[in-house]
Structure formats: structure tokens, C-alpha cells
Amino acid sequence: MIEIKNLKFNYDETTVFNGLNLAFKAGEFVAILGHNGSGKSTLSKLLVGLETPDDGEIWIAGMKLSDTTIDEIRKKVSIVFQNPDNQFVGATVADDIAFGLENRQVPREEMVALVKRYVKQMGLVGLEHSAPHDLSGGQKQRTAIAGALAVGAEILILDEATSMLDPVGRADIMRLVRELAKDKKRTIIMITHHLDEAVYADRLVVLNDGEMIKEGTPLCVFDDITELEAVGLDVPFAVKASKLLYEQSLIKKICVTNEELISALCI
């Protein structure tokens, strides 16, 4: 679905990427990890054409990203940013979800049905006519995700979408993302520095100073705790605890999620 070839990008005199190669399969749920300044958010902007590579190629759904293909590519990619207030453009929840559909000139009857569908799927029933200032941070992010899904995007990018939310809001959005990932209907790229959110992804990609230093399943990536902590990432509690218990032969496997750890302890 996405292929990045020898990507190079600089901010003024600062090199962000110097030959990054990376690919994402259709229907895959990938978490991109890294400390602040590692290049995560820059990568998301490059994927949607908000920034232009200095060199290299980005291919999305068989099209090379360029000035001539950007409009078509943006029909396939939706992005949800860190601050929901910066993304809310409608006067109400329903207006905001309908915004992208109106821009694409979707017939009104179809648009109304799509808004209703995603209001329900995102748990926003009863808030359709609410103004932005009446919503919690989590409700605003759910509205932003609803708008991204309503236009039929094949790729959903979540750029630190939970970082400004309280623990309850974060957990709410992550439950939603996990449900979206289950049906494999779209490629989900989640950019985060919270490793406890990333444990549910199919694959993890760890960036450090613009370089991919590790990738693989959560279990594979979390195998070396010291390496991750050296680049400013805190390994989830379930991984740390289960490693200690496994080394003492108290459980039969290393766990990456709290649910797996509880299950292992109850056997």
C-alpha cells in the first residue's frame, strides 16, 4: 500500500531522513515509535504531501507521490493530528464529519447516511449537533476519526492522536483504533511515543534521529529493553514484569499486553 524508497529530507541545515526505506502492507496496523525529534511526525507530513522530500520516492496505492498525483493520493489517505482543536472545522459534530464529503461533492442523501453511520460507529450518538467547545478531548478526536473514515480513506494516519488526552480519553481512542484494525479494511499507521499503545499493532517501527533502528512484531521489538531505553523509550510494564517472571520460570512466555500477562498469571 505504501513504499518509501531512499527518502531524504532536511529542515534547513538539519537532516531528518538520509535514505529511509520503509513499506506498509494493505490492511496492516503499524505503530511508528520514537522520542520527540526522531522524525515520526515529519514522516506523516511527507506521506500526505504537507512536506516535500529532497530526494527519494514515496509510492502510495501504486502512484508515485508528486504534484500531479497528490490530489488523487489524498483521496486515499486521511490523517488525524495531535490537537483536535486544530482539526475541527465544522460548527457541530455532524458538520465536521460532513466537511470532507461536501468537498468531494458526495450527493446529499449519501452524505447524510454516511454521517449517521460514522456518528454511530464512533460512539457520538446524541452529540451530532454539539459545538466543539461542548466536547471532551476524546470526543473531538473521535469526531476527527469519523470524518477521516467517512470519506472512505484506505490509509488512516494517527499522528500522536492521543498525546493531548487524559488517561481515560487515551484508553477510549485506543479501544476504537483496535476495533478499526480488526477488520483489515484499511491500513492504519499510528505515530506515538507511548509504547503501551503500540503493543496492539501488527508491526512496530522504531525511529531514532531519522533512522529505522528496529522493526518487527511487538514481541520481537521489545526483546531488547536496554536498546529501547537507550533511545528514550519506556518499555511497557507487562513486558518488564513478564520477562522477570519468565526468567524465574513462573510463567511460560513473555507477554506484551496487560491482558496477556493476567492470562499467563492465571494459568
Note the total helix count: 12
- What structural class should be given to the helix and strand makeup? alpha/beta
Report the C-alpha radius of gyration, rounded.
19 Å
Arrangement of strands in the largest sheet: 6-7-8-3-9-10
What this model shows, in words?
The chain is 40% helix and 23% strand. With 267 residues, it is an alpha/beta fold. The protein has two domains: 1-76 and 154-217, 3-Layer(aba) Sandwich (Rossmann fold), CATH 3.40.50; 88-152, no CATH class. The protein has a six-stranded mixed beta sheet, with helices on both faces. A four-stranded antiparallel beta sheet has the order 2-1-4-5, with helices on one face. Helix 4 (93-103) packs across helix 5 and helix 5 (108-121) crosses helix 6 (137-150). The N and C termini lie far apart (40 Å).
Features of the shown structure:
267 residues, alpha/beta, six-stranded mixed sheet, four-stranded antiparallel sheet
Short description:
The protein has 267 residues and is an alpha/beta fold.
List the helices and strands and how they pair.
Layout: E1 2-11, E2 14-24, E3 29-33, H1 40-47, E4 55-60, E5 63-64, H2 70-74, E6 77-80, H3 84-87, H4 93-103, H5 108-121, H6 137-150, E7 155-159, H7 167-182, E8 187-192, H8 195-198, E9 203-208, E10 211-216, H9 218-221, H10 225-230, H11 237-247, H12 258-266
Parallel strand pairs: 3-8, 3-9, 6-7, 7-8
Antiparallel strand pairs: 1-2, 1-4, 4-5, 9-10
Helix pairs in contact: 4-5, 4-6, 5-6, 6-7
